[in-house]
Amino acid sequence: MATSLHAAIDNLRRSRVWKSIFRRGPAITNRTRSVAVFGNLFLHWLPVKVREKSLRVRAAYYLGSLSLLLFLILVVTGVLLMFYYHPAAPKAYHDMKDLRFVVSNGVFLRNVHRVGAHLMVLLVFWHMFHVFYRGGYKPPHEFNWVVGVVLLLITLFLSYTGYLLPWDQLAFWAVTVGTNIISAMPVIGNEVRFVALGGHIVGENALLRFYVLHVVILPLLAFLLIGVHFWRVQKDGGLTVKDDDGKN
Amino acid sequence: MSETKQNPAPVLPSGKPGVSRRDFLNEITMGALGVAGLGSAALTYQYFSPNVLFEPSTTFRAGNPDLYPVNSVTFLQDQQVYIVRTPTGFYAVSAVCTHLGCITQWKAEANTIACPCHGSKFQPSGRKIEGPAPRPLPHYAINLTADGELQVDKLQIIKGDQVLNV
């Protein structure tokens, strides 16, 4: 039974359809395994070989990977929440209440999105501290450190723009206070606040602007930069894992 | 005239080096793209700055002056304004804290206007007593309508020593 299954998989891998999709035969030699990684869009930024140390859970706590996982969870739950949410006052508040009390499993999705967002901020900061205290910003990782700082800012902006969307008192006052911080900027402060809110007060325009930023612009930027970030980790020589004797 | 791959810079009749056709076209193109980019940025900025706002009116009627006793501070919650009546007359003080925009509250027992967010305190005149607020609460223009009601314009900020005698 087992041998016939293996034979069937082997035949499948040698078939014309398989080869047309994966552009190679079975990955049975080091060369074909390398080609398997190089020739795949989703794997090509991964190293063909890694040091065993960098695979240990202790080595880096996988904080970056966990942040990515949370980002993906937030994308999935966020897209699902969008099916029931209108970014308009006062409908947004009622939609949020509906998600909590009327829609099947809506409260679960909303809370996964909410708690996930809190955790992502926590993990991104944790990741940053970890990289900082291990000297992960040093050459040749300087550029990736900068990309990481931009990703931290994007994470915070995502949190902040998402804060307004429930359209309750907390959201209103948080954004009122936050955008008044913008207007403390000399000379251009009031103008920047006006454009950010689309008005003088936190109203419908502000809700729609924050919504578009939250669901389109900031996630796309984050997605792009996460790609650069992970790719650079490999191209800069892998995770900064110290040997047992303390040397890099 | 045939193009060469090297495309060297021509020498002008005066003997000075000129600009090659390729460099000239490159600079013209980059310049045009730069102008177009700046123009696009300006247009995008204009697009994001709304021309018509659907926001509440900034001018409102505050009712008959007799509604307000002498030596009183009245908080108009919908307008976020205090109507203050002193023996000399009326003035209107903003209730929006100058720190970060929270709505302050009138504490009659302490004779102060207090902000719940970060603890700023003001006198009824709007003058700051303490707290992180950088400026006193502004006074709005207040006057009487033809039929004798108080009217406040929140877009006009006046000096703190002006009062409306009724």
Topology:
The complex is a heterodimer of chains A (248) and B (166).
Chain A: H1 2-13, H2 16-22, H3 30-38, H4 57-60, H5 63-82, H6 91-101, H7 106-133, H8 142-164, H9 169-182, H10 189-197, H11 204-235
Chain B: H1 21-48, E1 59-63, E2 72-76, E3 81-86, E4 89-94, E5 105-107, E6 112-114, E7 121-122, E8 128-130, E9 139-144, E10 150-158
Antiparallel strand pairs in B: 1-10, 2-3, 3-4, 4-9, 5-6, 6-7, 7-8, 9-10
The named CATH superfamily of the largest domain in chain B: Rieske [2Fe-2S] iron-sulphur domain
The proportion of strand residues of chain A reads: under 5%
Shape of chain B: elongated
**Most extensive contact:** A-B, 14 and 12 residues
Parts with pLDDT < 50 across at least 5 consecutive residues of chain B: none
N-to-C CA distance of chain A: 49 Å
Mean pLDDT of chain B, nearest integer?
89
The number of distinct structural domains of chain B comes to: 2
Distance between the termini of chain B: 90 Å
Outline:
The complex is a heterodimer of chains A (248) and B (166). Chain A has 248 residues and is mainly α.
Question: What does this entry look like structurally?
Answer:
The complex is a heterodimer of chains A (248) and B (166). Chain A is mostly helical and 248 residues long. Chain A has a domain at 63-235: Cytochrome Bc1 Complex, Chain C (Up-down Bundle). Chain A is built from 11 helices and no strands. In chain A, α5 runs antiparallel to α7. Chain B is α+β, with helices and mostly antiparallel strands. Chain B is built from 1 helix and 10 strands; from the N terminus they run αββββββββββ. The radius of gyration of chain B is 31 Å and the shape is elongated. The termini of chain B are far apart. The model of chain B has no long low-confidence stretch (mean pLDDT 89).
